[in-house]
Design brief:
mainly alpha; 68% helix; 1% strand; 734 residues; flat
């Protein structure tokens, strides 16, 4: 037993239980195993009304089961040892009996061998004696009597003795607990605890108690109504005050007498009477209360009542006033803030929500309002968390319509609200509350995003709408991701990672507008195809400013993300995302070059670069194949706008196909067939292009003759340098 002085005057003792049954005895204190007479142990001061007492009981039951299993294993070990000892003793007894039988047989044989010689010696002695005494009467020789053989060392059989005696089931600890329960002798009937047990209430008792409290409330309301109608202001005030004080005192006295449930029910009636008192003060215009602002009055009254309820709970150790006081202390300042801003209802709602969030930052300090008899106040802290969530919803709803004449009001208000929510996440992170932190962190991002979106709507500028939200979301995402990487897998790391994913989702939604504007810019060059070589290669298709700004924003975002991931050590894992994004962006920004000839050359250059990367076997082949094919098709299709661009694109496509045929033997046949078909088909358009470009009519043979001739030339050209290319690429000869 160990004893420690307690500030409350108790002696804290941690005692090993006198028996296994004492561990699961709910009538004894789990710390000192003294019989319980109240919710607080009279010996060590342990609060048995704490919710963690159920956890202690569960652990005690598990320990008792383990001790029972231990006793069973030890009993089996002793039984096995007894059986082994008995078998050994039986074997030893049998061996001793066999030794005795063998000794008896040997003694009998030896006696039988010496008996004739002894008889002859006796007869000779008798004859000699007779010869020396002739006058004597011959006596008959006595018959020798032989004793039965006796064992030299008779074997002794000892009763078996336990080498390892079984310990008693109730083992006292090395220390001496107070008033230990003596162990009962073996076979004695087990005694049931005869001390006072903890009070247990049935459902009928609780129902009757609830009915009694309700009837008291009805009676009090009826009494106050009669007093209100028949009496004057002074009489009303005296009656209401006396009734309230009487109920509060009654509840406190009942709690002192350990009638906890009844006291809590009466306390509810007292709280209701306090609310009626606050209403009556304003209704009777006591001290000019009716002339004050309603929100300010009720907020001040709630704040004062919360302080009073907390003091009442601390003195009387009641739980209901404490819970009500915690809620009142949170709601009172919110009402005061709403009344202080005045005027605009949305502004008042926003002030109330923000104040609720600020006040509930002190939720972890709620247990300090009690004297420790109610544990960690899990219920009250959870209620304050719910109040904080309500404040966030109220504040977010109000800021969406806040100050309609001010463009930047929503984002400023959202920034303040998000900062307080982030403070909640930080506090939850430091306390190890994973769920709260993982909810508050993304909530802060969502609130800020909502305010920024409302500001963008109020700005009503297409360029600003296409650029600013995406850039802000990208910067926020990268900052949160960097912080999450540094935090690791702890509570803060998980919360920051969830917040970064929320910011990434917001950025993806914001990227839809600039992406759509960039894609729409492709329609400009496509409209020129309807003229059929009727445009100049230097014709200009000017995209709108929003499209250009969107393209620049997308480029900036990809570059920013690439740099951040490179510096943050995430490049190896995120490389595919950057490569694909860059490839798609390269295909989309072509129309931003405006001049149709430059647009075609841009796509042809992308195709050539993809082929060169494939030939060098660098990077990701699947990306180069997809981008190369798309760019080659885009450049060739857009080249029909002008004869010069078509000629350049045709030659480039043919060259690309010819180079592709040399990359690998598996694609050689397909590439050669495509090359022959493409060049043969393009040969039909050569006279038309020449005629449009130079105004000259070209007389050519029939289509079949042209196709056959061109196909033959292509086949001859396709077989020229492939062997040397194979050798240069390190491929074996076919």
């Amino acid at each position: 037993m160990t004893g420690v002085d307690d500030p409350r005057g108790f002696t804290r003792r941690r005692v090993w239980p006198p028996s296994r049954e004492a561990l699961i005895d709910s009538t004894r204190c789990p710390s000192c195993f003294t019989e319980i007479a109240a919710s607080t142990c009279a010996s060590c001061g342990l609060d048995l009304s704490d919710q963690r007492a159920y956890r202690v009981l569960d652990l005690s039951q598990r320990v008792a089961r383990l001790l029972g299993d231990r006793d069973e294993v030890l009993a089996q070990m002793h039984a096995d040892a007894d059986r082994a000892f008995a078998a050994a003793a039986k074997t030893a007894a049998a061996a001793a009996a066999a030794e005795r039988a063998a000794a008896e047989r040997a003694a009998a044989e030896q006696a039988a061998a010496t008996r004739p010689a002894a008889a002859a010696a006796e007869r000779a002695a008798a004859e000699q004696a007779a010869a020396t005494r002739p006058a004597a009467v011959a006596l008959p020789s006595p018959t020798p009597v032989h004793a039965p053989p006796v064992d030299a060392m008779p074997a002794q059989v000892h009763a078996p003795v336990d080498a390892m005696p079984e310990p008693p089931r109730d083992v006292d600890p090395p220390t001496h607990p107070p008033a230990p329960t003596p162990a009962a002798p073996a076979g004695a009937p087990k005694k049931l605890p005869t001390g006072p047990t903890a009070p247990r209430r049935s459902g009928v008792q609780v129902f009757l108690l609830s009915i009694g409290v309700v009837l008291l409330a009805v009676a009090a309301a009826f009494f106050l109504t009669v007093a209100w109608v028949s009496g004057g202001l002074v009489l009303r005030s005296i009656i209401v005050a006396l009734a309230t004080v009487g109920v509060i005192v009654t509840a406190s006295v009942l709690r002192r007498r350990r009638l906890t449930a009844t006291a809590e029910g009466i306390a509810l009636l007292g709280i209701a009477l306090v609310a009626l008192d606050v209403w009556a003060v304003r209704a009777n215009d006591v001290a000019g209360a009716a002339g004050t602002d309603a929100l300010l009055y009720w907020g001040s009254a709630a704040l004062a009542a919360g302080v009073g309820f907390a003091a009442w709970a601390r003195v009387s150790r009641l739980r209901v006033p404490l819970t009500t006081g915690v809620v009142a202390l949170a709601g009172g300042p919110a009402l005061i803030a709403a009344g202080a801003v005045g005027g605009d209802p949305l502004r008042a709602w926003y002030a109330a929500g923000l104040t609720l969030l600020l006040v509930t930052l002190a939720a972890p300090l709620a247990p300090r309002l009690s004297r420790g008899e109610h544990g960690s106040l899990v219920l009250e802290v959870a209620v304050l968390r719910g109040v904080a969530a309500l404040g966030a919803v109220v504040g977010l709803s109000a800021l969406l319509g806040l100050e309609t004449g001010a463009t930047w009001a929503p984002v400023v208000a959202a920034l303040s609200l998000a900062a307080v929510i982030a403070a909640h996440a930080i506090i939850a992170t430091r306390r190890g509350e994973q769920l709260i932190a993982s909810v508050a962190a993304p909530a802060a991002v969502l609130v800020f995003g909502a305010g920024a979106t409302m500001t963008v709507v109020r700005v009503a500028d297409p360029t600003f709408t296409a650029t600013a939200p995406l850039l802000v979301a990208t910067v926020l995402f990268l900052a949160l991701e960097r912080a999450a990487t540094r935090a690791g897998g702890a509570t803060a790391g998980v919360a920051l990672r969830v917040a970064s994913l929320t910011a990434a989702a917001g950025g993806a939604i914001a990227a839809l507008i600039p992406f759509a504007l960039v894609v729409a810019a492709v329609a400009g060059p496509l409209r020129g195809l309807g003229r059929g070589f009727g445009r100049s290669a230097f014709a200009v298709d000017v995209p709108d400013a929003e499209s250009t700004a969107s393209a620049l924003t997308l480029i900036a975002v990809v570059a920013l993300v690439a740099v951040a991931w490179r510096l943050g050590g995430l490049w190896a894992a995120r490389n595919p995302v950057i490569v694909w994004s860059t490839a798609v962006l390269a295909l989309l920004v072509g129309p931003q070059l405006r001049v149709i000839g430059l647009v075609v050359l841009w796509y042809l250059a992308i195709a050539i670069a993809a082929v060169l990367l494939l030939r060098a076997r660098r990077g990701r082949p699947e990306v180069w194949v997809s981008v190369g094919i798309s760019a080659l098709l885009a450049g060739w299709i857009l080249s029909f706008s002008a004869p010069l661009t078509w000629a350049i694109a045709t030659v480039t496509v043919a060259g690309v196909l010819w180079v592709v045929a040399s990359l690998h033997r598996l694609v050689r046949v397909v590439a050669i067939v495509a090359l022959v078909v493409f060049v043969s088909g393009s040969a039909f358009l050569v006279p038309v292009v020449i005629g449009i470009a130079f105004g000259v009519f070209v007389l050519v043979p029939g289509p079949l003759v042209v196709a056959a001739g061109v196909a033959s030339l292509c086949l001859v050209a396709a077989t020229i340098p492939f062997r040397s290319l194979d050798i240069a690429n390190g491929m074996p000869r076919p």
